[in-house]
Design a protein that fits this description.
29% helix, alpha+beta, globular, 786 residues, disordered N terminus, 29 strands, 7-stranded mixed β-sheet
């Protein structure tokens, strides 16, 4: 069990528990950040992709002669050119199985389509020219001869008899028929239940809308492929590019990432453009740059969500859960991304139970290919959805059974005396305080005052509703992660780790952990994450695990620094190593090695400098205090909380205003409260966007109907309420910091809180459910229909 006594937030200005400002902010806010599009390499030329205007069709020919003769053009390549070079194909290697035990049927995607196009935006060729404008002009002259075919864009429609078939070797468009849970026992529980609640829910498709569109520069340097690109982890992307795409040893590939303007899952894996850039760079002997434009991003970036779900909850007469069952269609898009099948299968299974005692779970998911952009992880990746399904079932069951939804929650909450709790999903919850947290949220949100506020809204002709979103999500388990510590010649200390900051603020949080552990001055700590050459391990950033992985690696690496430092301090102080003690924060100062029982000592930074400057050292004395360490791994953690939203609806227009919002969260030990609150705010904003505004639309012919911000509504500042944030921490026992992860929890709480509040407000019309996004038009139509 972690020793949380060392994490006293009152001890250190820059220690764990302090709201230290992000070290990145002065750089970013003064325009000194270095995003991929900011980079200009000597001799750099430009690439522009040629994309299919059809959602489905057979490629008969691609004419490149006219484009090749355009001014400034250096080359035009098609899928045939890349195929001749012998590159590999992108595929999904997840070890998921069909219910009959057979493996997942994966697609094998070339960087450029060669036989068929399968969605609008599917790349079929690319042009490289001296300038971007020249490349764009030439790309427009590439002639496409494509025989159009019927398209299908909805997963359930792709499963229907007679649906257009995307691949000859994937019959019925089905890549996975997933089932988990004891069907017979679940069916028996439903048959014996006093009450069964059923809901059909749409988990709307989302455009990721990262601040920085995808951008990359490919070069071939010293017989190595070098890709400068925004991503979520250079170690994993290097492995994918080397092993799967380029088919070369990993040592021949280097991935470099600077600042990243958001990802949320979308930039985690390889894309077709990356191979195109590297191929052209090697062929031309020049660095080749590509930066997407926003409309092209809408077409070609991997989207999020997109599930059709029938959710069922079996309860006894007192409202206690007997079983939950999810039966879903999951839209994979035209090609399987690296993690596409995970969200609606394993992550539904792990997260639908939330913080409730649920004896039986069954998840049945058919994953289908459609003529749409591929789908991948989006903030939470199945975790918010699992909680959303359960919370909507609870509210509906309460209405149907005449029992308070709060009472149903309390009766089913796992209680502190039951930990460690073996969930039906296979998770082992190590701790929590779910009912107390719910009650604290009700108090913090002043739910007792809601009837008076509802009456006041009614006087103004408005409907007011209150929604509760209890949640618990299972983070990704921290995988092997590097915790390197390097003492630099300029007096700074560099942390080297394999997670990657794409907006989270890792620098400050990791520096706080190192400062707390061994007293290295906070302002002398730097962070290196974005160079694959520096890494020997790295799980990347995703699944709300960065602090649990890199933080634990830093703690363990710091302990190794102290071990090396004792030997070095014994030399510097002319004492025996057995007599050397280490004090992390003597009188609040930097870490110091001392001879036991005396006041003779040496600071850790001075010791590192002495070692660097020494012309020679005795045998056994380390030359540096540098450490390269790999944290093995830890179990996943279980952040949880309760969000409470109050909305007002104008019944004449369907316009929704979120008037009040409170969140009470258990993220375990919090290293930096300000950053954690910011993460929660961001997740809540994205949840509100999905609940009220955002949805990707395709026409019957597969044309994208929401291809710009004129058609796709993101939440703006005026759509956001003031967000309350309260910490109700129960430290995790499964990692050295006691942390639980926080990056995706905002979505997990906001989806059910906002939608439950909407349904509560509309219940005066007898409305029991409305799907996301609950736009003014949909709300107005629901009121009129009622």
């Amino acid at each position: 069990m972690p020793d949380h006594n060392m994490l006293d937030p009152t001890r250190l200005k820059f220690g764990i528990g302090q709201s230290v400002p992000r070290a990145e902010d002065p750089i970013l806010l003064t325009g000194k950040g270095r995003y991929t599009d900011d980079i200009a390499l000597p001799g750099q030329v430009w690439a522009v992709m040629v994309r299919s205007p059809y959602a489905h069709g057979v490629i008969r020919g691609i004419g490149t002669e006219t484009a090749r003769e355009m001014p400034g053009v250096l080359g035009v390549w098609t899928g045939a050119d890349l195929a001749a070079a012998g590159y590999g194909l992108m595929k999904c290697g997840m070890p998921l199985k069909n219910r009959d035990g057979s493996p997942l049927r994966t697609t094998h995607r070339p960087a450029l389509a060669t036989d068929k196009v399968r969605f609008v935006g599917d790349p079929v060729a690319f042009v490289v020219a001296e300038t971007r404008a020249q490349a764009k002009d030439a790309a427009e002259k590439v002639e496409l001869d494509i025989d159009s075919l019927p398209a299908v864009t909805l997963a359930s429609a792709a499963a229907a008899p007679g649906a257009p078939q995307l691949y000859d070797d994937i019959p019925g468009n089905e890549v996975l028929d997933f089932q988990q849970g004891d069907s017979a026992k679940v069916a028996e529980a439903f048959a014996q239940a006093a009450h069964v609640t059923r809901l059909s829910l749409r988990n709307n498709r989302i455009v990721v809308c990262a601040m920085e569109p995808r951008s990359a520069i490919g070069s071939f340097e010293d017989d190595r492929y070098v890709l400068r690109v925004g991503c979520q982890g250079v170690f994993g992307l290097r492995a994918q590019m080397a092993n799967e795409v380029l088919k070369v040893p990993k040592e021949q590939v280097r991935i470099l990432t600077g600042n990243v303007g958001g990802s949320f899952g979308m930039k985690a894996n390889a894309y077709p453009e990356y191979l195109c850039l590297l191929h052209a760079a090697k062929a031309l002997g020049l660095p080749v740059k590509w930066t997407d434009e926003r409309t092209s991003s809408f077409l070609s970036d991997q989207h999020g969500r997109d599930h059709e779900v029938d959710a069922e909850l079996a309860l006894d007469a007192e409202g206690r859960f007997l079983a939950v069952r999810l039966t879903s269609f999951a839209n994979m898009g035209a090609y399987l991304s690296t993690v596409a099948p995970l969200m609606a299968t394993a992550n539904f299974w792990k997260n639908v139970q939330a913080n409730y005692r649920t004896p039986l779970i069954e998840v049945i998911t058919r994953s289908l290919l459609t003529n749409t952009s591929p789908v991948s992880a989006y903030r939470g990746a199945g975790r918010p959805e699992g909680n959303y399904f359960m919370e909507r079932l609870i509210e509906t069951a309460a209405l149907e059974m005449g029992i308070s939804a709060l009472d149903i929650r309390r009766r089913n909450h796992i209680q502190p005396a039951e930990f460690p709790y073996a969930a039906a999903s296979g998770s082992i919850y190590d701790g929590g305080d779910f009912t107390a947290l719910l009650d604290r949220a009700l108090g913090a949100a002043d739910v007792a005052g809601f009837p008076a506020r509802k009456a006041e809204s009614a006087q103004r002709g408005l409907l007011r509703g209150l929604g509760v979103g209890n949640f618990l999500e299972c983070t990704a388990p921290p995988t092997k992660e590097q915790g390197g510590i390097r003492f630099e010649a300029d007096g700074t200390v560099t942390i080297i780790t394999g997670t990657l900051d794409y907006g989270q603020g890792h620098w400050s949080a990791f520096a706080q952990v190192l400062h707390q552990s061994i007293g290295i001055p906070f302002h002398q700590i730097r962070l290196l994450q974005g160079d694959s050459d520096e890494l020997i391990a790295g799980g990347g950033t995703g699944g709300s695990k960065s602090l649990m992985a890199s933080g634990a690696a830093i703690v363990e690496a710091a302990e190794l620094v102290v071990e090396k430092g004792r030997e070095a301090a014994a030399w510097a102080l002319e004492a025996a190593a057995a007599d050397i003690e280490f004090e992390a924060h003597p009188e609040g100062g930097e870490g110091r090695f001392l001879i036991a029982g005396t006041d003779r000592g040496i600071g850790i930074m001075e010791l590192a400098a002495r070692l660097r400057q020494a012309p020679s050292l005795p045998e056994g004395v380390p030359a540096t205090l540098d450490v390269t360490h790999v944290f093995d791994q830890a179990p996943q953690a279980y952040p949880n909380g309760c969000h409470i939203a109050e909305v007002e609806i104008d019944p004449e227009t369907g316009i929704v205003t979120i008037d009040r919002y409170m969140s009470v969260n258990d993220f375990g030990v919090i290293v930096n409260p300000m950053l954690v609150a910011g993460q929660a705010h961001g997740g809540i904003a994205q949840g509100i966007g999905q609940a009220l505004l955002e949805s990707v639309g395709y026409g019957e012919d597969g044309q994208l109907q929401t291809g710009s911000y004129l058609d796709y509504a993101l939440p703006r500042a005026g759509d956001m309420p003031s967000i309350g944030f309260v910490s109700h921490a129960v430290p995790a026992t499964t990692n050295p910091l006691g942390a639980k992860g926080c990056g995706e929890a905002g979505c997990a709480g906001s989806l059910p809180a906002v939608m439950n509040a909407l349904v509560d407000a509309l219940s005066v019309y007898g409305i029991r459910h409305i799907d996301m996004p609950a736009t003014p038009e949909r709300i107005w139509q629901a009121i009129q229909a009622a």
